[in-house]
Amino acid sequence: xxxxxxxxxxxVGVCKACQKAVCVECSIDTGRGLACSPACEKEVGELNLIMxxxxxxxxxxxxxxxxxxxxxxxxxxxxxxxxxxxxxxATRGRFDFISSAFGLGFLVFGMLAYIRxxxxxxxx
Length: 124
Ligand SMILES: [Zn+2]
Ligand SMILES: [Zn+2]
Fold this sequence. Notes:
- By secondary structure, this protein is mostly helical.
- It folds into 2 domains: 1-36, no CATH class; 69-120.
- The chain has helices spanning 38-57, 69-92, 97-120, and strands at residues 13-14, 21-22, 28-29, 34-35.
- The strands form 2 sheets. A two-stranded antiparallel sheet has the order 1-2.
- The longest helix has 24 residues, at 69-92.
Protein backbone atom coordinates (compact mmCIF):
# COMPACT_ATOMS: atom_id res chain seq x y z
CA UNK A 1 0.00 0.00 0.00
CA UNK A 2 1.25 3.47 -0.91
CA UNK A 3 0.60 6.92 0.57
CA UNK A 4 -2.70 8.51 -0.44
CA UNK A 5 -1.04 11.87 -1.22
CA UNK A 6 2.34 10.61 -2.51
CA UNK A 7 1.63 7.68 -4.79
CA UNK A 8 5.28 6.62 -5.04
CA UNK A 9 6.00 6.54 -1.31
CA UNK A 10 5.20 3.41 0.69
CA UNK A 11 2.65 3.85 3.47
CA VAL A 12 3.77 3.45 7.09
CA GLY A 13 0.26 3.48 8.55
CA VAL A 14 -3.30 4.71 8.27
CA CYS A 15 -4.73 8.01 9.50
CA LYS A 16 -6.85 7.27 12.56
CA ALA A 17 -9.44 9.91 11.58
CA CYS A 18 -9.97 9.50 7.82
CA GLN A 19 -8.42 6.01 7.30
CA LYS A 20 -6.21 7.17 4.41
CA ALA A 21 -2.74 5.60 4.06
CA VAL A 22 0.14 7.89 5.05
CA CYS A 23 3.89 7.84 4.31
CA VAL A 24 6.69 8.78 6.71
CA GLU A 25 6.81 12.29 5.27
CA CYS A 26 3.13 13.25 5.76
CA SER A 27 2.23 11.22 8.84
CA ILE A 28 1.80 13.08 12.15
CA ASP A 29 2.33 10.88 15.20
CA THR A 30 -0.19 12.01 17.84
CA GLY A 31 1.16 9.52 20.38
CA ARG A 32 -2.10 7.59 20.16
CA GLY A 33 -2.53 7.05 16.44
CA LEU A 34 -1.34 8.58 13.17
CA ALA A 35 -2.89 11.59 11.46
CA CYS A 36 -2.49 12.77 7.87
CA SER A 37 -3.08 16.51 8.34
CA PRO A 38 -3.47 19.11 11.11
CA ALA A 39 -7.25 18.87 10.66
CA CYS A 40 -7.11 15.10 11.17
CA GLU A 41 -4.70 15.55 14.10
CA LYS A 42 -7.43 17.55 15.87
CA GLU A 43 -9.99 14.88 14.95
CA VAL A 44 -7.75 12.08 16.32
CA GLY A 45 -7.42 14.01 19.60
CA GLU A 46 -11.20 14.27 19.82
CA LEU A 47 -11.65 10.57 18.99
CA ASN A 48 -9.20 9.68 21.77
CA LEU A 49 -11.14 11.96 24.14
CA ILE A 50 -14.41 10.20 23.22
CA MET A 51 -12.80 6.82 23.97
CA UNK A 52 -11.39 8.03 27.30
CA UNK A 53 -14.77 9.46 28.36
CA UNK A 54 -16.58 6.24 27.33
CA UNK A 55 -14.10 4.18 29.33
CA UNK A 56 -14.75 6.43 32.32
CA UNK A 57 -18.54 6.37 31.97
CA UNK A 58 -18.72 2.56 31.66
CA UNK A 59 -15.85 2.00 34.13
CA UNK A 60 -14.03 -0.12 31.54
CA UNK A 61 -10.83 -1.52 32.98
CA UNK A 62 -11.93 -0.78 36.55
CA UNK A 63 -11.96 -3.89 38.76
CA UNK A 64 -14.12 -2.50 41.58
CA UNK A 65 -16.04 -5.14 43.55
CA UNK A 66 -18.57 -2.53 44.72
CA UNK A 67 -22.10 -3.08 43.31
CA UNK A 68 -23.29 -0.73 40.57
CA UNK A 69 -24.54 2.72 41.62
CA UNK A 70 -28.06 2.00 40.32
CA UNK A 71 -28.21 -1.29 42.25
CA UNK A 72 -27.07 0.45 45.45
CA UNK A 73 -29.60 3.26 45.01
CA UNK A 74 -32.57 0.99 44.24
CA UNK A 75 -31.64 -1.35 47.11
CA UNK A 76 -31.32 1.56 49.54
CA UNK A 77 -34.76 2.98 48.70
CA UNK A 78 -36.26 -0.52 48.60
CA UNK A 79 -34.99 -1.31 52.08
CA UNK A 80 -36.07 2.10 53.48
CA UNK A 81 -39.63 1.75 52.15
CA UNK A 82 -39.89 -1.93 53.18
CA UNK A 83 -38.65 -1.04 56.66
CA UNK A 84 -41.23 1.75 56.87
CA UNK A 85 -43.98 -0.69 55.84
CA UNK A 86 -42.84 -3.32 58.35
CA UNK A 87 -42.57 -0.65 61.07
CA UNK A 88 -46.10 0.58 60.35
CA UNK A 89 -47.42 -2.97 60.48
CA ALA A 90 -45.52 -3.89 63.68
CA THR A 91 -46.38 -0.73 65.64
CA ARG A 92 -49.89 0.13 64.40
CA GLY A 93 -51.01 -3.15 62.88
CA ARG A 94 -51.79 -1.29 59.68
CA PHE A 95 -50.80 -2.47 56.22
CA ASP A 96 -49.20 0.48 54.42
CA PHE A 97 -49.88 -0.15 50.76
CA ILE A 98 -47.88 2.84 49.43
CA SER A 99 -44.67 2.02 51.35
CA SER A 100 -44.97 -1.68 50.47
CA ALA A 101 -45.50 -0.94 46.79
CA PHE A 102 -42.54 1.50 46.67
CA GLY A 103 -40.32 -0.86 48.69
CA LEU A 104 -41.01 -3.94 46.59
CA GLY A 105 -40.88 -1.92 43.37
CA PHE A 106 -37.44 -0.52 44.19
CA LEU A 107 -36.15 -3.98 45.15
CA VAL A 108 -37.43 -5.44 41.86
CA PHE A 109 -35.82 -2.59 39.87
CA GLY A 110 -32.60 -3.12 41.83
CA MET A 111 -32.58 -6.79 40.87
CA LEU A 112 -33.30 -5.95 37.21
CA ALA A 113 -30.49 -3.37 37.20
CA TYR A 114 -28.13 -5.93 38.72
CA ILE A 115 -29.00 -8.59 36.12
CA ARG A 116 -28.80 -6.11 33.25
CA UNK A 117 -25.41 -4.68 34.31
CA UNK A 118 -24.06 -8.19 34.91
CA UNK A 119 -25.18 -9.31 31.44
CA UNK A 120 -23.71 -6.21 29.73
CA UNK A 121 -20.59 -6.46 31.91
CA UNK A 122 -21.04 -2.82 32.96
CA UNK A 123 -19.66 -1.38 36.15
CA UNK A 124 -21.49 1.93 36.42
ZN1 LIG B 1 -6.66 11.93 7.86
ZN1 LIG C 1 2.59 11.00 2.05
